[in-house]
TrEMBL record:
A Pfam family reported for this protein in Swiss-Prot or TrEMBL: ACAS_N
Region feature Disordered, mapped onto this chain: 1-22
Gene3D superfamilies in alphabetical order: 3.30.300.30, N-terminal domain of ligase-like
UniProt organism field: Geodermatophilus ruber
Residues modified as N6-acetyllysine: 608
Official protein name in the record: Acetyl-coenzyme A synthetase
Family (UniProt): Belongs to the ATP-dependent AMP-binding enzyme family.
Record: residues binding CoA: 189-192, 308, 521
GO biological process per UniProt: acetyl-CoA biosynthetic process from acetate
Transport recorded as keyword: no
InterPro entries assigned: Ac_CoA_lig (IPR011904), ACAS_N (IPR032387), AMP-bd_C (IPR025110), AMP-bd_C_sf (IPR045851), AMP-dep_synth/lig_dom (IPR000873), ANL_N_sf (IPR042099)
Catalyzed reactions: acetate + ATP + CoA = acetyl-CoA + AMP + diphosphate
Domain AMP-dependent synthetase/ligase, residue spans: 86-467
TM helices/strands, residue ranges: none
Length: 646
C-alpha cells in the first residue's frame, strides 16, 4: 500500500441484508473490551465440556499461558459426536471432490464412525495419549479422519504438507519423535497421480523410531510395503468397531504440532493445545465467516497440511457443525474453471483462499469465472499475505459479484486462529486493510523500542495480551519460544515478525515480514533454509537468498550463489541443477525463481550479508545506501549479472 493508494481508498460498508442477519453486530467489540476474559469464557461455552474450568487464564508465568485451567473436554467429540447426538447425523460434514472428478460425501454420522474406527486402529497399534503421529497425506477424507482419530485418543498429530521432501519429513519426524506415520500411496495433482509412500520410505531411512506406517490406497500406484512395519489402512481400519468412548483430556492437553519456517534453517514445531485452540477457531469461524450451520456451504481452498487447513477445514468448521467442501487438486485441472465449477456444483456460500490464487485467476482472465453461476457466494475470505487492492477489487467484482464482503484475515501458524480481520456484518471494508483486531484480541503497532505508535504510523505489529489459541511453546524448545516471540519487547508482548501501519481510523494494514522469512504463494519459507540447501550442493560455496516481490506469488525466491573454486559456471545448466536441488531438498515450493551466480556478496564490515541490497537488485530498484559495505563495487558486478529484461 502506498500513501497515494491510501488517499483514494474506496470503502465498502456491509450489505444491509447481510448485516441485519449477521451472527455478530458492532456491540461485540464493546462487549469484549468490557471484560476480555469473561468474553472468552462465553465463547468457550460454544464447546461441550466434561468438566468446567476453574480459571479462564493463568498468566502467572509468562509467556507460558494456560487457558481454561482445570477444564476437561475431548476435541473430536466436540467436532463430531455431539452433533450426531443432537440429531444432525445426516448432515453433510464434507463434500469431497477428487481431482479426477470422483466424489465422496461424508455425513456427520459417517464421520463419527470413521473416526471411531481409526481411533480403535491407532489404539491397536499401541498409540497412547501424548504420543506423536505424523500424517503425510493428500487432500482426501482420511486425512481429516486421521487427525480427528488422534485428537480422540489424545495423540498429538503432526501433519506434514504432502509437497515436502523426504528430508523435510524426516527432520520433522525426528524432531517430534513420531512413532507412527499415516500416509497414502499418493494423491492426484495436475492430472496425474503423485506418489507419497516412496517419500516416506526414503524419509524413514534417515530417522529412527517409527514402528508403524499406515497407508491409504488412493491412486493405486505400486508401493513397497515393509513387512512388520507397513499396513494398509483398509486392512487395519475397516475391520475396527465403530464404537469408541472418547476420553476427556485436560484443556491444555497437546492437540497438534505444525512446523513452520523461522529465521534459522531449523523449522519450529508450533504446539497447539485443546480447549483454548478449539474455542478461538470455533468463535472466529462463526463470527468472521458469519457461519450458518444449517444453510452455508463453506470452502477453505487450502491444503490441510497448513495451519489454515487445520483451523478452517477441520477444527473450526466441525466444531460449528458446518458443511464444508474439500478439493484434492489444483485449480487448473482439468481446466482453469475448476474452482468455479465446484462453487456452482455444491452451491458454495463462503470461499476462503489466498491472494496468490486470486492473482492467478486475474492472469487467466475474468471471462473464466463469468462462465459459471457463482450467485450462491455471500462471503469471501483472504489469508496468507497482504492482499493488494487490485486483487481485492478483482475478487470482489469477478468472484463476489460486488455483493460479498471480503474478510482479509491476518493470523499465523503461531496464533492458531484469526487475529486481525473484518467482521462481515459490521466492518466497512477498505481493500488492502485487514481492519481491526478480533473482539477479545489486543494488537498494537510499536516502534523499535516497543512504544505504541499513534494512528497514521508505520511500525512493528505486536500482540499485547495472550489469546486462547496462542501457541504454547516450540516443541521441545521453550527457550527458543521465549527468544523468538517474547523477548524483543518483554515477556508479555508477542512480536509477530510483521510490519504494519495503523491508519487514522485505527485500521491495520499489514506490510509483510520484517525478518528473513519469505512469503511465497502464502507459504512461509526461511531464507536461511534455502541458503543451507544451496550450500549443501557441491558446486556452491556461499549463497544469499532474498524474497523479491512477484506479481503472482507475492514474493519470489531469488538466490545469489558463489561457486566453489574448482567449479565451472556452466550457465543455465547449473542454474537449473541448483533449482532442482532445492526443490528436491525442501520441496517444490522452495524452488528459487531465479539463481544468479556471482563472484562476491555484499557484506557489512562485520560480515553480515546485506540482503536489503540484494533485494534492491532482485526487484530492479535503485540501490539503497551502500556505505556500510566493505566494497561497494561488489554491487555493480552483481547488477551486471541481471538479465537485461529484468
Ligand atoms: C502473513 C497463515 C497480511 C504474515 C495463516 C504472517 C498475512 C504470515 C495475512 C503467517 C493477511 C497471513 N495479511 N499478511 N491477511 N495472513 N499473513 O504461519 O506475514 O503460514 O506473519 O499462517 O503470513 O503465515 P502462516
Amino acid at each position: 500500500m502506498s500513501e497515494s493508494t491510501e488517499g483514494q481508498v474506496r470503502r465498502f460498508p456491509p450489505p444491509p441484508d447481510l448485516a441485519a442477519q449477521a451472527n455478530v453486530g458492532p456491540e461485540i467489540y464493546e462487549e469484549a473490551s468490557r471484560d476480555r476474559l469473561a468474553f472468552w469464557a462465553r465463547q468457550a461455552e460454544r464447546l461441550t465440556w466434561a468438566q468446567p474450568w476453574d480459571e479462564v487464564l493463568d498468566w502467572s508465568n509468562p509467556p507460558f499461558a494456560k487457558w481454561f485451567v482445570g477444564g476437561r473436554l475431548n476435541v473430536a467429540y466436540n467436532c463430531v459426536d455431539r452433533h450426531v447426538e443432537a440429531g444432525h447425523g445426516a448432515q453433510v460434514a464434507y463434500h469431497w471432490e477428487g481431482e479426477p472428478g470422483d466424489t465422496r460425501t461424508l455425513t456427520y454420522g459417517q464421520l463419527k464412525d470413521e473416526v471411531c474406527k481409526a481411533a480403535n486402529a491407532l489404539l491397536e497399534l499401541g498409540v497412547q495419549a501424548g504420543d506423536r503421529v505424523a500424517i503425510y497425506m493428500p487432500m482426501i477424507p482420511e486425512t481429516v479422519v486421521a487427525m480427528l482419530a488422534c485428537a480422540r485418543i489424545g495423540a498429538v498429530h503432526m501433519v506434514v504438507f504432502g509437497g515436502f521432501s523426504p528430508d523435510a519429513l524426516a527432520s520433522r519426524i525426528t524432531d517430534a519423535d513420531a512413532q507412527v506415520v499415516i500416509t497414502a500411496d499418493g494423491g492426484y495433482r495436475r492430472g496425474a497421480p503423485s506418489a507419497l509412500k516412496p517419500n516416506v520410505d526414503e524419509a524413514l531411512t534417515r530417522t529412527e523410531g517409527v514402528r508403524s506406517v499406515v497407508v491409504v490406497r488412493r491412486t493405486e500406484q505400486d508401493v513397497e510395503m515393509t513387512e512388520g512395519r507397513d499396513v494398509w489402512w483398509h486392512d487395519l481400519v475397516d475391520r475396527q468397531s465403530t464404537a469408541h468412548t472418547p476420553e476427556m483430556f485436560d484443556a491444555e492437553h497437546p492437540l497438534y504440532i505444525m512446523y513452520t519456517s523461522g529465521t534459522t534453517a531449523k523449522p519450529k514445531g508450533i504446539l497447539h493445545t485443546s480447549g483454548g485452540y478449539l474455542t478461538q477457531v470455533a468463535f472466529s469461524h462463526w463470527a468472521v465467516f458469519d457461519l450458518k450451520a444449517d444453510t452455508d456451504v463453506f470452502w477453505t481452498a487450502a491444503d490441510v497440511g497448513w495451519v489454515t487447513g487445520h483451523s478452517y477445514i477441520v477444527y473450526g468448521p466441525l466444531a460449528n457443525r458446518a458443511t464444508s467442501v474439500i478439493y484434492e487438486g489444483t485449480p487448473e485441472t482439468p481446466h482453469r474453471g475448476r474452482w468455479f465449477e465446484i462453487i456452482e456444483k455444491y452451491g458454495v456460500t463462503i470461499l476462503y483462499t489466498a491472494p496468490t490464487v486470486i492473482r492467478t485467476f486475474m492472469k487467466w482472465g475474468e471471462d473464466i469465472p463469468a462462465k459459471f453461476d457463482l450467485s450462491s457466494l455471500r462471503i469471501l475470505g483472504s489469508v496468507g499475505e497482504p492482499i493488494n487492492p487490485e486483487a481485492w477489487l478483482w475478487y470482489y467484482k469477478h468472484i463476489g459479484g460486488e455483493r460479498c464482503p471480503i474478510v482479509d484475515t491476518w493470523w499465523q501458524t503461531e496464533t492458531g486462529a484469526h487475529m486481525i480481520t473484518p467482521l462481515p456484518g459490521v466492518t466497512t471494508l477498505k481493500p488492502g486493510s485487514a481492519s481491526r483486531p478480533l473482539p477479545g484480541i489486543s494488537a498494537k503497532v510499536v516502534d523499535d523500542e516497543g512504544n505504541e505508535l499513534p494512528p497514521g504510523s508505520t511500525g512493528l505489529l505486536v500482540l499485547t495480551e495472550p489469546w486462547p489459541s496462542m501457541l504454547r511453546t516450540i516443541w521441545g524448545d521453550d527457550d527458543r519460544y521465549v527468544d523468538t516471540y517474547w523477548s524483543r519487547f518483554g515477556k508479555t508482548t508477542y512480536f509477530a515478525g510483521d510490519g504494519a501501519k495503523i491508519d487514522e481510523d485505527g485500521d491495520f494494514w499489514l506490510l509483510g515480514r520484517v525478518d528473513d522469512v519469505m512469503n511465497v504463494s502464502g507459504h512461509r519459507i526461511s531464507t536461511t533454509e534455502v541458503e543451507s540447501s544451496l550450500v549443501a550442493h557441491p558446486a556452491v560455496a556461499e549463497a544469499a537468498v532474498v524474497g523479491a516481490s512477484d506479481p503472482t506469488t507475492g514474493q519470489g525466491i531469488v538466490a545469489f550463489c558463489i561457486l566453489r573454486g574448482n567449479v565451472e559456471d556452466s550457465g543455465e545448466d547449473l542454474v537449473q541443477q541448483l533449482r532442482q536441488h532445492v526443490a528436491k531438498d525442501i520441496g517444490p515450493i522452495a524452488r528459487p525463481r531465479q539463481i544468479l551466480v556471482v563472484q562476491e556478496l555484499p557484506k557489512t564490515r562485520s560480515g553480515k550479508i546485506m540482503r536489503r541490497l540484494l533485494r534492491d537488485v532482485a526487484e530492479n530498484r535503485e540501490l539503497g545506501d551502500v556505505t556500510t559495505l566493505t566494497d561497494s563495487s561488489v554491487m555493480e558486478l552483481i547488477s551486471a549479472k541481471l538479465p537485461s529484461s529484468q
